[in-house]
């Protein structure tokens, strides 16, 4: 398995004075995902939980939705000239009868760590019909529980504390219990690793859970939540307009700017329980007030 962090010498300048020191950096390396021996995608990721990443990628793309549809995931040996294993190429075997992905849904062969949608043929290609529906679930979460999630997520981020350079995705119960957490240099990879963990643990669909992400709420992350059957997603930063549209379409509760005791609820507000019986509408929007964009 590849290293998650490396140590590098840096020149630190502060208040006009320069000193040399050793800094801890997060590793970013390519991972090639093959499907039954055929190249499918290359993504830049932080090594670790690679099998989860591949499995979650296939869930997000609508290729699989149940653990039994994947028969094996293995690293490919002989990835270098000397025959050694770089742990940067792995192959996923599908069960007999599982159809291969439609080419219109496949990513380009290369995707960056910052963009989970680079290479999509069109926006319409991303709007795949999810197997799991979330709009009829009974999940309800107290607002006070939601406000505790960012701190709980940060407390569980081991590599971030050393590098400050990783995104995190955490899966929580309605009571705020952390079920699983994954870190990666790419925010979409972190979510794929989490969804892949759920697939390989036969936990899909992830009903009655909350997805908490450390960055912004982008369209592709809401899509991944939908594909995994997650009814609620919260982010510490802003959502995009397309993320809000997709959340409303899917029936997902979308929370942004979750900081301190404040939050903005952009879709699915019926799942959030407030202690106060009445919520005063905003004069400008008629909605729940929160921190500005």
TrEMBL record:
The organism sits in which domain of life?
Bacteria
User: Which Pfam families does the entry mention?
Assistant: FdhD-NarQ (PF02634)
The GO molecular function terms of this record are: sulfur carrier activity; sulfurtransferase activity
Print the keywords alphabetically.
Cytoplasm, Molybdenum cofactor biosynthesis
Per the record's keyword annotation, is Signal included, yes or no? no
What does UniProt give as GO cellular component?
A: cytoplasm
> Can you tell me where the transmembrane regions are?
none
Spell out the subcellular localization from the entry: Cytoplasm
Instruction: Please tell me whether the keyword Cytoplasm is annotated for this protein.
Output: yes
Q: Where in the sequence is the active site?
A: 115 (cysteine persulfide intermediate)
Alphabetically, which GO biological process terms does the record hold? Mo-molybdopterin cofactor biosynthetic process
Q: Which SUPFAM superfamilies match?
A: Cytidine deaminase-like
Q: Could you tell me what this protein does?
A: Required for formate dehydrogenase (FDH) activity. Acts as a sulfur carrier protein that transfers sulfur from IscS to the molybdenum cofactor prior to its insertion into FDH.
For this chain, the family text in UniProt reads:
Belongs to the FdhD family.
Q: Provide the protein name.
A: Sulfur carrier protein FdhD
Q: Which organism is it from?
A: Nocardiopsis dassonvillei (strain ATCC 23218 / DSM 43111 / CIP 107115 / JCM 7437 / KCTC 9190 / NBRC 14626 / NCTC 10488 / NRRL B-5397 / IMRU 509)
Encoding gene (name): fdhD
């Amino acid at each position: 398995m590849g290293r998650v962090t490396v140590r590098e010498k840096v020149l630190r300048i502060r208040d006009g004075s320069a000193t040399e020191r050793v800094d801890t950096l997060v590793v970013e390396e390519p991972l090639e995902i093959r499907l039954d021996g055929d190249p499918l995608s290359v993504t830049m990721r932080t090594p670790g939980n690679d099998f989860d990443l591949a499995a979650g990628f296939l869930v997000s793309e609508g290729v699989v939705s149940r653990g039994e549809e994947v028969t094996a995931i293995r690293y490919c040996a002989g990835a270098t000239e000397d025959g050694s294993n770089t742990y940067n190429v792995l192959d996923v075997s599908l069960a007999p009868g599982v159809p291969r992905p439609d080419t219109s849904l496949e990513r380009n062969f290369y995707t960056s760590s910052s963009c989970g949608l680079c290479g999509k043929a069109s926006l319409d290609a991303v709007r795949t019909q999810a197997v799991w529906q979330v709009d009829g679930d009974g999940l309800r979460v107290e607002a006070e529980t939601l406000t505790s999630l960012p701190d709980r997520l940060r407390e569980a981020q081991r590599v971030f504390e050393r590098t400050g350079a990783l995104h995190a995705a955490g899966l929580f119960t309605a009571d705020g219990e952390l079920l699983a957490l994954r870190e990666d240099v790419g925010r979409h990879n972190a979510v794929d690793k989490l969804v892949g963990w759920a697939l390989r643990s036969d936990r899909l669909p992830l009903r009655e859970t909350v997805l908490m992400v450390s960055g912004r709420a982008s369209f592709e992350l809401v899509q991944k939540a939908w594909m995994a059957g997650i009814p609620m997603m919260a982010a510490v930063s802003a959502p995009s307009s397309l993320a809000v549209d997709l959340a409303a379409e899917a029936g997902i509760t979308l929370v942004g700017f979750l900081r301190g005791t404040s939050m903005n609820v952009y879709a699915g507000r019926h799942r959030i329980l407030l202690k106060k019986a009445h919520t005063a509408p905003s004069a400008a929007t008629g909605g729940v007030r929160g921190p500005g964009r």
